[in-house]
Amino acid sequence: LRLALGAPASGALAEDGGTLAAYVEVSPYGDEKGGVFVVPADVVAALDRGSDAFREPSLLGVQSPQFTKVDVAGKVTLTRAPNGSWRLPSGVRASADVVDGLLIALYELKAGPFLPDTTPVDVAKGGTVQITLVDNQKLDVSFGGACPNDPKLVVAKAGTTTGCVPEFVTARIATPESAYPDTRAFWLLPGGETQKISEIEAITVESGGAKIVDAERRGDGLHLRVPSDEQIDNASTERFLGRVAAVTGTIVQSPDLAALGLSPPAGRATIRRRLSAAMAGATDGGAQLSEQVVEIGAPMKDAIHLRRLDDGVVLRVPLELAQPLRAAAAHELRSPNLVALTAESVKRVHVKPADGISFEVTRKSGVWELTTPAGFGADASTAGSITSTLATLLCLRWAADKDDGSFGFDKPSVVIDVEREAKEPDPATLTIELGKEVADANGGVYARVKGRDPVCVLPVGKRDPLLKPPVDYRNISFDPTQTPRIEVTRGARHRLLQYSDVTKAWTDATDAGSDFIARKLADAIRGLRAEGLVHLGPARPDEGFDVPFLLLTGSDGAAVKKRLIVGGVGKLNDVPVHYVRIDGVDATWAVLRADIDAISTLL
Fold first, then answer.
1. Residue 378: CB atoms within 10 Å
2. Contact at 8 Å (CB) between 241 and 197?
3. What kind and span of H or E run contains 565?
4. Distance CA 561, CA 577 (A)
5. Are the CB atoms for 102 and 175 separated by under 8 Å?
6. Within 377-485, where are the H helices?
7. How many angstroms separate the CA atoms of 406 and 435, rounded?
8. Peptide bond before 28: cis, by omega within 30 degrees of 0?
9. What is the rounded end-to-end Cα distance, in angstroms, of the chain?
10. Rounded-to-integer distance, Cα 226 and Cα 219, Å
11. CA–CA dist 157, 117 (Å, integer)
């Protein structure tokens, strides 16, 4: 069969890329007569291609699993170990993520376009790489210099094949050897944490010669054999293995093993990792299991030392990062819930901060009441927020098996007594203690349930809602049905407002007043709402109540029902406020300065 591509067809219109429909002659084939036909532009484009379009674009022609050695001249030499990891000439394991960047760069050695084989390569602006394959065959690659077709690309040559490749290849291959040493405890597949976690088939952690964790994959989680026979759910499994994969530190040069608690070691951790035969450089197919062992030193003040047996490297790891490999490792597999309860089951909450306002709220017949401090009224929304927070106290991590005196529980920052509907075997009451804040970049606050040993780290954001008293901040406003007369006084200025239950409107009870102004003033007073409860107890000298800024007195015509005393100006959370007190209530409130100024301006 012979096809001949001819000229563009008469009247053909250019399509995408400027290609036109064209004539094609088909020679006689068998019993067919052949003839001349018009074919569309996409067929023309497919036929009208040079030989380069049919060439394999990869300059290497092989995949990285076939590599056993990569030598970047003057930069780094890497050799694949039996377990699939890569090693530096010193025997130190190379970082999976950094090696992955190099392998991606080699994969991207794809000609786009191809160049004549006589095109020069300026290795002074690039470099050379020699790759050894599993069959001991060697591939030599040189690259460098701007592509004559596109200065954003780089000229590269492998064997007798020359082409233009992406410029980032130059930067990746130029990575120095100093960037390659692996600082992770375990070598796992590069990329996202989920990929790393998926390779771990089993893990054991030993301390003092005894296993404290022995688990292997079963279903979508880990099945724990030690310290107890139980199935760990998927979320807890992913969280624990994610922390194991993330254990990283700094390499200790010329380590003194005895001084670092590694001679003899205090414990060891072993993971069994599943990897493909290609990843390990094998040719017989099938997945393989590979064990990695890390020896664990005795904990020091703020760090612990780990020794990788596969390359002998010693890492200094912060205690918090090494937690899943320490004596309390079993606690890393437990549920992150500090307490198991539902918001609906909570009947009483008593919050006692070391520095702040203590309060107690109780639910009776479905309605929240503020028991302590008395006389304030409870805000149902804030009370509900407290119980919702208690029901979602998820630990960032479990910090220790038991309190060693360093978490601040000798003088708790907050003590929270919780009473709930009893459900066997859970007790009806429990006490949550919060210690000091965690002094590291991740933050948090230490927490525990009194009478239970494990210590966890809660987000600080979970503590703050628990410290806000569920006080009804609207109780500084005036209800016209209770106080139909409101007297406003500022120094010599005075105004009396009267509410009519018949007309449902406010009027000025003084002769010179304007009813329009009276209505605006009454609305401003009735809309008052506290921004916060500053403190309980007597007024403080700096709050300005010795010479009040404003007085608001509400009565029913016969007796005073409520009296607000507006003091001086201060700030609450960097917002300007006036201090306000209510006669008969031993507390100081904060009201927006703008709201008080609106009342003062209308006098």
1. 20
2. yes
3. strand 560-572
4. 25
5. yes
6. 380-391, 460-463
7. 9
8. no
9. 103
10. 18
11. 8
Q: What whole-number percentage of the chain has pLDDT above 90?
A: 39
* CA–CA gap between residue 262 and residue 254 (Å, rounded): 13
DSSP state of 389: H
Q: How far apart are CA 573 and CA 587, in angstroms?
A: 18
What's the Cα-to-Cα distance from 344 to each of 413, 420, 453, rounded to whole Å? 26, 9, 27
Residue 11 φ/ψ region, left for φ over 0, alpha for ψ in the -120 to 50 degree band, beta for the rest = left
- H or E, element range at 524: helix 515-526
Rounded Cα distance, 166 and 111, in Å: 9
Task: List the Cα angle 144/150/153 in 5-degree steps.
Answer: 40
Rounded CA separation 96/181 (Å)? 9
CA distance 174 to 543: 66
Cα 177 to chain center, whole Å? Answer: 31
The amino acid sitting at 95 is S
Distance of CA 395 to the CA centre of its chain: 14
The pLDDT value recorded for residue 16 is 56
Q: What value does the mean pLDDT of the chain take?
A: 87
Helix (H, G, I), strand (E, B) or coil at 318: strand
| Strand-strand pairing, 161-166 and 200-207 | unpaired
Q: Which two tokens stand for residue 451?
A: 């009478």
Give pLDDT, residue 10. 86
Report the pLDDT value the prediction gives residue 159, as an integer from 0 to 100.
83
Tokens of 425: 């075997």
Query: How far is the C-alpha of 471 from the C-alpha of 466, rounded, in Å?
Result: 13
Among 461, 344, 318, which residue's Cα sits nearest to residue 396?
A: 461
Is residue 187 within 8 A of residue 245, CB to CB? The reply is no
In the prediction, which pLDDT does 264 show? 92
Q: Please give the C-alpha separations between residue 92 and each of 81, 188, 458, in angstroms, as whole numbers.
A: 11, 15, 38
Q: Give me the residues of the chain with pLDDT under 50, please.
A: 283
State residue 423's pLDDT score: 65
pLDDT of residue 535: 84
pTM of the model: 0.56
How is residue 505 written in tokens?
């409107």
CA distance linking residue 417 with residue 361, whole number of Å: 11
Token pair 């380590």: residue: 255
- Name the pairing type of β-strands 505-508 and 493-500: antiparallel
Note whether 310 and 93 are within 8 A (CB). yes
Place of tokens 């760090």: 303
Give the per-residue pLDDT at 443: 79
pLDDT in tens, 179-205: 999 999 998 877 777 778 888 999 999
User: Across-strand partners of 574?
Assistant: none
pLDDT digits (tens, 9 = 90+) for 266-317: 999 999 988 766 555 554 555 578 899 999 999 888 899 999 999 999 999 9
Which tokens in the block code for residue 26? Answer: 């088909």
Name the amino acid, one letter, at 286. Answer: G
CA separation for the pair 590, 473 (Å, rounded): 10
